[in-house]
Design goal:
heterodimer, A: 314 residues, mainly alpha, MetI-like fold, two-stranded antiparallel sheet, 16 helices, 2 strands, 71% helix, B: 280 residues, 2 domains, 13 helices, 73% helix, globular
């Protein structure tokens, strides 16, 4: 219906012909409007497009920067070596475990916490501001703080463990505990981030929606499941996506705490690429490695976006 | 009245319960930070006793030693330079992109905005490999300029998206009126739009500052001994010698403090800023 009226309207206009003095496609007045965009766009292009191509080219060569030799074209050899490399698959496993558990736990905790703070109580504003403090501390400093807190003899965590009669534990030095400990550190630092987003979104839900559900006799769990979750879908998606993107990069706290160890228990992809590229200086191998990381991140982000959008259509 | 009164009582009980639980959780989040700050004000003996000392006479000696005896003081100055310059340039470049996207209807503007946003997905370790080689070939490695350039690049997508939202919030009628009065596009922007969007622009600048200040990977790879930023300078404490922890915590506190202050100043826009404008 609407399209036919539009066509009709346009047909009614055409007999008048093109208006004099207004030539489409030739508007020199407006070109100046867009000139201001160029410095920024040029900057982005210089730092995004050219390096991307360059990185792809390097990844098809064999090149160690330290030896001073020229890069030699080897085709897909780096990628083939990577896919057969046990250290590569270990880093994928470590990264995926880290990302999945960290983001999942952060989301669940943040959602619960947001529900707790949803209705006012005395002191809630101050508490909310205090909870945000961890996420503002530089991850490098958080890494140091974690090492100090988990220190066996005078670290606060082990002091508290001993106070309740538990044995002293080497959290970061144990192959079994190192990765869960890194996840715990990430959860401590970044749950506040999702909490902040979810709380803001929850408090943006119109009160009438909740009142109407209550009048229908819905209980709080039902309201949360049937009203909150659908209404919060977009903020949840944004928050979780940002956390996913960031947790795939985990590097700072690894650098400051475990350096990939013990053995390779916490060797995330970002750490491993750094190690290969900037400590062994096999830059071409690192470039290929980083492309596989990028592909993994894009795959995960894409899958999530498609899942969420297909969910809304239904 | 009588029907409402009994209903309220359990609610108050529930509120008290929620406040208590919230208080305990808050303590879990700020506990380590409180410990960090108190340790920074302790002497070695106070910090390394087998029992936690809750009450002590604070000392500033850790801060003094951190700022005087080491490269940390220089790193603070470097970081201030890097963060301030990169934020200001990012704001300028981003405004140039964001304002036309916010105001003018042109073909492919949402596509352009999407492409810029998608840059945020790329992990920094992917970006740094080719850029390290490029910056090396032009002799910029080890300079503050290299770090500044990368921080501008890192913050541009965020700044474009935030500023776009803030410029859209400025009523269009005001600009049209200004243009009727004969103001050009540039003077309309600087005299009308910018003052009205100032709180948002300031918040965007503060967030850029925070991200630049906390950034580690780029700075770590690109800096040398003289161009260390604060986060890189903290790595000198990775293998602590003896009872250095009180100084380390003083340094960590000094790194965190400006960010807490910046966040406090931009509190109102924190959610919007951290979600690139997606959640207001």
């Amino acid at each position: 219906m609407s399209t036919s009226t539009q066509i009709g309207a346009r047909a009614a206009v055409t007999p008048l012909g093109p208006r004099p003095g207004r030539r489409p496609g030739r508007r020199p007045v407006h070109a100046g409007r867009y000139a201001v965009m160029f410095p920024g766009l040029l900057f982005l292009a210089a730092f995004a497009i050219y390096p991307t191509i360059y990185s792809l080219v390097i990844s098809l060569t064999k090149w160690r920067v330290t030896t001073g030799e020229e890069p030699r074209f080897v085709g897909l050899e780096n990628y083939a070596t990577l896919l057969a490399d046990e250290a590569f698959w270990n880093s994928v496993r470590v990264t995926v475990v880290f990302v999945v558990f960290a983001v999942l736990i952060e989301f669940l905790l943040a959602f619960g916490l947001a529900l707790l703070f949803f209705r006012n109580f005395p002191g809630d504003k101050v508490m909310r501001a205090l909870i945000l403090m961890p996420m503002l501390v530089a991850p490098v400093a958080v890494g140091l703080l974690a090492r100090f807190s988990l220190e066996p003899t005078f670290g606060i965590v082990n002091q508290l463990l001993r106070a309740v009669g538990l044995p002293t534990t080497e959290f970061l030095g144990s192959p079994a505990l190192a990765l869960p400990t890194l996840i715990a550190i990430d959860v401590w630092q970044w749950t506040p981030f999702l909490f902040l987003i979810l709380l803001a979104a929850m408090q943006g839900i119109p009160e009438e929606v909740i009142e109407a559900s209550k009048l229908d006799g819905a209980s709080w769990p039902r309201i949360i499941w049937h009203q909150f979750l659908p209404l919060l879908k977009y903020p949840i998606l944004v928050g979780v996506l940002l956390r996913l993107i960031d947790s795939f990069r985990v590097y700072d706290i690894v650098f400051m705490t475990t350096r990939g160890g013990p053995v390779d228990a916490t060797s995330t992809m970002s750490w491993q690429i750094y190690d290969v590229g900037f400590r062994s200086f096999t830059i071409s191998y690192a470039a290929a490695y980083s492309w596989l990381l990028l592909i993994l991140v894009l795959l995960v982000v894409n899958t999530l976006l498609r899942r969420m959008s297909s969910g809304t259509e239904r | 009245m009588s029907t409402i009164a009994p209903r309220r009582r359990p609610r108050n009980g529930l509120t008290a319960l929620r406040a208590t639980i919230a208080g305990i959780i808050t303590l879990l989040f700020i506990g380590p930070i409180l410990w960090m700050i108190t340790t920074a004000f302790k002497t070695g003996n106070q910090a390394f006793s087998t029992e936690i000392q809750w009450f002590f006479t604070p000392t500033l000696s850790n801060f003094e030693r951190v700022l005087q005896g080491t490269s940390f003081g220089f790193a603070l100055v470097n970081s201030l330079q890097v963060s301030i310059i990169s934020s200001v340039v990012a704001l300028l470049l981003a405004s140039g992109i964001a304002y036309p996207i916010a105001r003018f209807d042109f073909k492919g503007r949402s596509g352009l905005a999407g492409v810029i946003l998608s840059l945020r997905i790329v992990p920094p370790i992917v970006t740094i490999i080719p850029l390290f080689l490029l910056l090396q070939s032009v002799g910029l490695n080890g300079s503050l300029t290299a770090i500044i350039l990368l921080h501008i690049f890192m913050n541009l997508p965020l700044a474009v998206w935030l500023l776009r939202g803030f410029y859209e919030d400025v009523p269009k009628e005001l600009e049209e009126a200004a243009q009727l009065d004969g103001l050009g596009h540039l003077s309309t922007f600087f005299r009308i739009v910018l003052p009205l969007a100032a709180p948002g622009v300031a918040a965007t600048g503060l967030l850029c500052f925070v991200f630049s200040w906390n950034e580690f990977l780029f700075a770590n790879i690109l800096s040398n001994a003289t161009s260390q930023t604060v986060t890189v300078s903290l790595t000198q404490y990775v293998t602590p010698v003896g009872t250095q922890w009180t100084q380390i915590m003083a340094a960590a506190t000094l790194v965190a403090l400006p960010v807490w202050l910046a966040a406090l100043a931009a509190q109102k826009y924190l959610v919007r800023g951290l979600t690139l404008g997606a959640v207001k």
